[in-house]
Design brief:
The structure holds two protein chains of two kinds.
Chain A: H1 2-28, H2 38-57, H3 63-79, H4 83-110, H5 116-121, H6 123-141, H7 144-157, H8 162-184, H9 189-260, H10 266-290, H11 297-310, E1 314-319, H12 333-355, E2 361-369, E3 372-380, H13 405-414, E4 419-425, E5 429-437
Parallel strand pairs in A: 1-2
Antiparallel strand pairs in A: 2-3, 3-5, 4-5
Helix pairs in contact in A: 1-2, 1-4, 1-6, 2-3, 3-4, 3-8, 4-6, 4-8, 8-9, 11-12, 12-13
Chain B: E1 2-7, H1 11-28, E2 32-37, H2 42-49, E3 55-60, H3 68-78, E4 83-88, H4 96-102, E5 106-109, H5 114-131, E6 134-139, E7 142-147, E8 151-157, E9 162-167, E10 171-174, H6 178-184, E11 189-193, E12 196-199, E13 203-207, E14 212-215, E15 220-221, H7 226-229
Parallel strand pairs in B: 1-2, 1-3, 3-4, 4-5
Antiparallel strand pairs in B: 6-7, 8-9, 8-12, 9-10, 11-12, 13-14, 14-15
The chains are: A alpha+beta, B alpha/beta.
Chain lengths: ~450, ~230
């Protein structure tokens, strides 16, 4: 007799819970539920029977997990949604039901001073508690914020990769399962300890995985940062060519005017002066640049040279002739990016220092030494440099929002054994040498 | 004896330099030995590595096999005391940074008042060889190049357990011991305190009553103990 009453109570409770669950799915999808729809009726009946079978047949430790999987399948069947949504929405509603259950039980135990353990074993009371839970769940699902959170999480999940998402949700379900068992049944302490260790291990793996994901993300992000920087450099070069073109046009106009009243070989003298002044300088720079191995480094240094020129800094570029003989093809793409970053920081720092000074000189030398390619950037300086602090985060001689470049350089060289940076200080000159092991 | 090392790939220029150096050294009655090279070849590199004192290099900037700048860098790796003079047609090499970086004395334009400019540079070089000394030390990835005449005093920071080298323009803290650094310097440094050595050439005044030492740039210190007072 008791068993029949228990089954009827369970059947009514699960019928109620499943109806309300399916209703909540429609609500979260901003759709009207059609109670007469055959699919919905089949789903409710199927889920009610399965949930009772689940209660009696399936082990306590995987009960929530198994019913969640059934809910996921039914959701997929009803809404024809993608796998991520089909996993997440049933779990979200299960979670809301858990919150409702917790609130109801706490209210009964604290306000009405009822013994909830006894109530759970009373069939009528059990049905009434489930009704209260369903009502509270109905209220929760009607709160716009709850639906908005669901929508936001769904949007976020859509951007994550499947493996990470599935692992995370499985852990959440398993934790919920164990916690629920611990609430209603007495678990052997040894078993509980083993489960706790298992969860800790799970969480540890999860943290490691998220670190790895973050690191991959940073790598990709850095790569695109460099790409944007390169695009800006190309824009600078385009501007330079625009100015050059404009100048050339003016020169041609002047020659045209001179041609009208050509006296004392004026044109040839003018052309000779321009070739000497303009083209010899550009040619010299381009010939020098061609000695730098290609693969990113050449363009990076060239764009820095343009920056130096635009700041009207007098500079010398000395490139060892032997540099032609090496190539950086063996170096990883990541190392090349790191080298370009270091060069950028060091030359930018030198430019910033020189911008404060009246006399502005810079020297950039590239030379080989014992399987190392050395790039030496030297500049005159006046500010007092506390040289042992220059690589500290936030140390600067230039005021706010500076002092992070060399800290970044330090981080890069610490993570890459093929790169090193040394500093030289003499009376008037501050130098930094980037050494790259290319073999 | 002064060792003069000449390298120029152009025969006419090279002979011109040799002739002018010979006249200068004979007039100054200074004993010297000259080494002449057409290029920065293996023999030249060997000479850089050879430990002979008082070297004056007269280097052509551009030769077929290497740049004088790269060679100067190589020389500086080996020694910081030799004198480098560049022979060039490149006016832009007057750059102060390059000059300090490679510590070269001058660049002489081969086509502009060459004779008198070479004489001036050689005069200056001989003076420097008598007095100039450079302290070059490496401390935790930082190389300091300090002209010894710029040093005022060297002391010990007992709090940070580091040695402080005080110059006109900076205060350099290094992890070398005081004795290690004194070992690299010459006898112009005298001890005034258990933890202080001063550059005697930079000393202006010693107030033994109040124990105050004043340097020629106006800076003062009070590191004068009774034990060393009489030697100052």
């Amino acid at each position: 007799m008791n068993l029949i009453a228990e089954i009827i109570s369970k059947l009514l409770s699960s019928e109620l819970m499943m109806t309300i669950t399916i209703f909540s799915w429609y609500k979260l999808n901003n759709k009207q539920i059609n109670v007469k729809s055959i699919n919905n009726i089949i789903a409710i009946i199927f889920l009610s029977i399965i949930s009772i079978a689940n209660f009696y047949i399936v082990n306590n430790f995987i009960r929530i997990l198994s019913i969640t999987i059934i809910l996921i399948i039914v959701y997929k069947f009803l809404f024809k949604a993608n796998i991520k949504e089909s996993i997440f929405t049933p779990i979200y509603t299960q979670f809301l039901i858990m919150i409702s259950e917790t609130i109801v039980i706490i209210l009964l135990a604290t306000i009405l001073k009822l013994n909830t353990e006894d109530l759970i074993n009373l069939f009528i009371a059990n049905f009434l508690i489930n009704t209260a839970i369903s009502l509270l769940f109905c209220i929760l699902i009607n709160i716009p914020l709850i639906r908005k959170i669901h929508h936001l999480i769904l949007k976020y999940i859509d951007k994550t990769n499947n493996k990470f998402y599935i692992i995370l949700l499985l852990i959440i379900i398993s934790i919920a399962n164990i916690i629920t068992i611990n609430t209603y049944y007495k678990i052997d302490i040894r078993l509980l300890m083993i489960i706790n260790v298992g969860f800790t291990l799970f969480c540890f793996i999860l943290v490691l995985y998220s670190f790895k994901t973050q690191s991959n993300y940073n790598k990709v992000s850095n790569k695109y940062d460099i790409a944007i920087k390169s695009l800006n450099n190309y824009e600078d070069m385009m501007n330079k060519y625009k100015i050059d073109n404009h100048e050339n046009k003016n020169i041609l106009k002047a020659i045209g005017l001179m041609a009208i009243n050509n006296k004392d070989n004026e044109i040839s003298k003018y052309v000779e002066a321009i070739v000497k002044e303009k083209y010899e300088i550009n040619d010299k720079l381009l010939i020098q640049m061609s000695k730098i191995p290609s693969g990113g480094l050449r363009a990076s240094i060239y764009s820095e040279i343009l920056k130096i020129e635009s700041c009207k800094i007098k500079y010398e570029l000395n490139i060892d002739q032997q540099l032609k003989m090496i190539d950086l093809i063996e170096l990883d793409h990541e190392i090349i990016i790191d080298i370009c970053k270091i060069i950028g920081v060091i030359i930018d720092n030198a430019i910033e220092e020189l911008n404060e000074l009246k006399e502005k000189y810079m020297n950039i030398s590239l030379y080989l030494e014992n399987n190392f390619l050395n790039i030496k950037v030297s500049n005159n300086y006046e500010s007092r440099i506390e040289i042992d602090k220059i690589f500290n985060e936030g140390y600067t001689t230039k005021g706010n929002s500076h002092g992070y470049g060399l800290a970044l350089v330090k981080k890069i060289i610490e993570s890459n054994s093929r790169l090193s940076v040394t500093t030289e200080l003499s009376k008037e000159v501050f130098s930094q040498i980037i050494s790259i092991k290319y073999k | 004896m002064i060792n003069i090392i000449i390298c120029d790939d152009n025969k006419k220029d090279r002979e011109n330099v040799i002739k002018k150096v010979e006249i200068f050294m004979t007039n100054r009655k200074i004993e010297y030995k000259k080494y002449v090279f057409e290029d920065y070849d293996k023999k030249f590199i060997n000479l850089i590595d050879t430990k002979i004192s008082s070297k004056i290099y007269l280097l052509d900037i551009e030769t077929p096999s290497a740049s004088g700048i790269d060679i100067a860098r190589r020389i500086r790796k080996k020694d910081v005391d030799s004198i480098i003079i560049f022979l060039t047609g490149h006016e832009e090499l007057g750059n102060i940074v390059l000059k300090n970086d490679l510590m070269f004395l001058s660049f002489i334009n081969k086509f502009d008042d060459f004779g008198s400019r070479l004489n001036n540079s050689l005069n200056k070089a001989l003076d420097l060889l008598k007095t100039r000394k450079i302290l070059r030390l490496n401390d935790r990835n930082i190389t300091y190049t300090i002209d010894i005449s710029d040093i005022l005093y060297i002391t010990k920071d007992s709090y940070e357990r580091r040695t402080i080298i005080k110059t006109d323009y900076n205060e350099i803290k290094v992890n070398h011991s005081l004795n290690e650094i004194i070992g690299m310097l010459d006898n112009r440094f005298i001890q005034t305190h258990r933890a202080c050595y001063i550059n005697n050439d930079r000393l202006r005044k010693v107030d033994k009553t109040n124990k105050i030492i004043t340097f020629d740039n106006g800076e003062t210190i009070d590191l004068l103990s009774d034990k060393y007072k009489k030697d100052v």
